Amino acid sequence: MEIDTLKEMTEKSNNIVFFGGAGVSTESGIPDFRTDSGIYNQKSQYSYPPEVMLSHSFFMEHTEEFFKFYKDKMIYKDVKPNAAHTALAELERRGKLKAVITQNIDGLHQTAGSENVIELHGSVHRNNCMNCNESYNLDYVLNSPKIVPECSKCNGIVKPCVILYEEPLDTDSIDRAVAFLERADMLIVGGTSLAVYPAAGLIQYYRGDRLVLINKSPTPYDSRANLIIRDSIGAVLRTVI
């Protein structure tokens, strides 16, 4: 019944926006953060909790320790897109889906073929020198002979273009996301507990009556949803293409 309703909503919509979180990528083998098996609850050899190590102040004060954790726990270079990623790319190809707004930093939506992706928290695939702003790809960071990657031009620190705790979201990304949400005739939210702000607060800009939540656990927006599906996001989304 829920799947039939989702299909009907999708068929009637031509301006769909998808808003996703870590649960979209768990089916590709990337752990989320807050579930029992997530990064925040894993036993670790590190001296600090992950929330601390992923903060701007920790990066600045303990740069080498940050990169050890970052390369160990945040990079999943060999993972592949799953059914959710490929379904969303197909919906975009058909002209139904206008934008993917993601909290993920893994780049799997683009790998699957999605073109209009707004990465609220940045991407591991983009890295810039903090001194001269020279750009580097992920391989440069991973293959650096030093734990802390250095710019080949000026020897400055090469920082991943990911949003750390204590850092503001990119204003251009926020503005683009709001514009798509305000115009959307259907919003599909998947794989996110909607607990991380300010990203989760963007949902309020959707004013339509086709708000779909696909998540295995409850969210603060359940009472506002027109349809809630508690199932694998890949299994659900593949049914609409």
From TrEMBL:
Q: Where does the protein end up?
A: Cytoplasm
Residues where NAD(+) binds: 22, 26, 33-34, 103, 105-106, 121, 192-193, 215, 233
What cellular-component terms does GO give this entry?
cytoplasm
> Which reaction(s) are listed as its catalytic activity?
N(6)-acetyl-L-lysyl-[protein] + NAD(+) + H2O = 2''-O-acetyl-ADP-D-ribose + nicotinamide + L-lysyl-[protein]
Co-factor remark: Binds 1 zinc ion per subunit.
InterPro entries recorded: DHS-like_NAD/FAD-binding_dom, NAD-dep_sirtuin_deacylases, Sirtuin, Sirtuin_cat_small_dom_sf, Sirtuin_class_U, Ssirtuin_cat_dom
Instruction: Give the source's domain of life in one word.
Output: Bacteria
E.C. numbers: 2.3.1.286
Major localization listed first in the record, in broad terms: cytoplasm
Q: Which residues cross the membrane?
A: none
Would the keyword Metal-binding turn up in this protein's UniProt record?
yes
Q: Active-site positions, per UniProt?
A: 121 (proton acceptor)
Question: Which PROSITE patterns does this one have?
Answer: SIRTUIN
Q: Which family does it belong to?
A: Belongs to the sirtuin family. Class U subfamily.
Record-given protein name: NAD-dependent protein deacetylase
Say which species the protein is native to.
Acetivibrio mesophilus
